[in-house]
Design a protein that fits this description.
- There is one protein chain.
- By secondary structure, the protein is mainly β.
- The chain is globular and about 50 Å long.
- The two termini are 25 Å apart.
Length: 497
């Protein structure tokens, strides 16, 4: 019997059927397959019990929590509390396809389409949808086509939503002409328009910034915002912990250049906001931080907050800052070694936060490096229930930390302070849970990871190179795709086709 393709999927000679066949096979029979998760802003995603996926045809599918009180996540107006099976987000017929999807904790979502138009829906009490109102936006809304918005007629190229559990929503976007605009909660000047009015319900320009190449924001109510323009870092908003890098703790309602402290003479290429801190990466690979030093996550070996930027590491290629409480920061160095600092409750044999950088090693002490290069790092959980996942370029996933609902995908629910390869991820075995299917091994490496949830109620999602999706961890509201709303400790495949 030859291998054949039909509307079910790929039928192999042994009679087994793979409904998540190779992407080319799915294209040949006219089926869309998942190509990207919702945007993992700053290496973490605080979305409450759910995930969204961009499909190869540009459509958006989701699963999980919907909230009967605001009908928000699905963008369909449907009032069910949660979806146990994938749903299609109800974009209108002229929607050209999604480029990025952004998920906020407070049932607030956004989508950047392939033509640079910006769509919002869900929770809107502070006007973050940019629809001129504060009512919940129960259907997807094209904010780019609303004449009262500053982004009207412009091409949006980047967006950022805050992380947190405080139900205060905010959007900041960057446009192709080098300007940035914001809408939503503004009590501390986060919008950057010179005011502190609680609500800004249309997208308003952030000061007079031009030449902007990057925007970011942090947590929700006590958030700050920032941008990079001409290699210079600008910050504004809440500053109670000195995170703006201004040398004081005074809030700012307009973007202000930060060139003091260790940023003097530096060209900034990336910046992120953590719980109550801001991190900046310079072109020479030096990493800088200011603000709250909770759990000593600055990695300086010091206690206490700082209101001026200080250099904390060198030879850094990229970094990830968890956006909400009990902070953990992870860095990937130019030599592909990986380190973390911050809350260590489930990340070390000792629960003591030592204030330094701790190298992340594979099982049995092997370091990530040139022979085992790193592709992606994400953080799971919040509070003290931290976990870290490392994806190598070969498609292997290594997991570490809090595992109460089986989030690490090891087939068990005990917490682990040693690194293990997640079950079925080395390589990612297709077919049944076991590594052998009809005496054949079919290798399907992991291509990307994402997470959702908070506390220990966390699910982690894995997208393979052949368009398959699996998840492990907490199953409340089917946030892990398990149709009977059960938590799972071995990755379960979700059929999105």
């Amino acid at each position: 019997m030859a291998t054949t393709i039909n509307s079910t999927g790929v039928v192999y000679p042994d009679g087994s059927i793979d409904t998540f066949a190779a992407n080319t096979a799915l294209s040949n029979i006219g089926l869309a397959y998942p190509v990207k998760f919702a945007n993992m802003i700053d290496g973490s995603n605080m979305r409450y019990r759910g995930m969204m996926f961009i499909m190869s045809d540009g459509s958006v599918k989701g699963i999980g929590h919907n909230s009967s009180s605001d009908y928000g996540m699905s963008g369909t107006g449907c009032s069910v509390s949660y979806f146990r099976k994938p749903f299609n987000v109800a974009f209108p017929s002229y929607f050209p396809g999604a480029k990025e999807v952004y998920l906020g904790r407070a049932e607030h979502q956004a989508c950047l389409d392939v033509n640079g138009e910006y769509w919002t829906w869900g929770y809107n009490t502070q006007g973050a949808c940019g629809n001129g109102q504060t009512n919940r936006q129960r259907a997807v809304w094209n904010a780019s086509r609303y004449p009262s918005n500053g982004i009207y007629g412009k091409t949006v190229v980047q967006a950022s939503l805050p992380a947190g559990t405080e139900n205060t929503t905010y959007n900041i976007v960057r446009t192709s002409d080098g300007m940035c605009y914001a809408a939503g909660y503004n009590a501390f000047g986060q919008v950057g328009n010179g005011s502190t009015a609680d609500v800004v319900n249309t997208f308003t320009r952030c000061g007079t910034l031009t030449g902007v190449t990057h925007v970011f924001t942090g947590r929700e109510r006590y958030t700050c915002a920032g941008a990079i323009a001409g290699g210079v870092l600008y910050t504004w908003g809440y500053n109670g912990d000195g995170q703006l890098g201004s040398g004081n703790s005074t809030n700012s309602s307009t973007p202000t250049a930060r060139t003091g402290g260790s940023l003097s003479g530096k060209t900034i290429v990336d910046a992120q906001s953590g719980y109550t801190s801001i991190w900046a990466l310079a072109s020479d690979g030096t990493l800088h931080v200011c603000g709250s030093n909770q759990d000593y996550h600055h990695g300086l070996g010091l206690t206490g907050n700082t209101t001026a930027f200080a250099q904390t590491n060198t030879n850094v290629r990229s970094f990830m800052v968890r956006g909400y409480d009990y902070p953990v920061v992870t860095i990937i160095k130019n030599d592909d070694t990986v380190y973390f600092s911050g809350r260590t409750s489930f990340l070390r044999q000792s629960s003591t936060n030592d204030g330094g950088w701790n190298q992340i090693l594979c099982y049995q002490g092997t370091a990530f490096g040139a022979s085992n290069p790193v592709q992606q790092v994400i953080h799971g959980g919040s509070g003290s229930y931290n976990s870290i996942f490392v994806l190598t370029t070969s498609g292997e996933v290594w997991a570490y930390g809090a595992n109460g609902y089986g989030t690490l995908g090891l087939g068990v629910t005990n917490n682990d302070v040693f690194w293990y390869q997640s079950a079925n991820f080395a390589p990612f075995w297709t077919g049944q849970t076991s590594n052998v299917w009809s005496n054949k091994v079919r290798i399907d490496p992991v291509a990307a990871m994402a997470c959702c949830g908070e506390g220990q109620e966390t699910a982690v999602w894995f997208l393979t190179s052949r368009g398959k999706v699996k998840a492990a961890g907490y199953g409340g509201d089917s946030g892990n795709g398990e149709p009977y709303v059960q938590s799972i400790s071995s990755p379960l495949r979700l059929d999105l086709v």
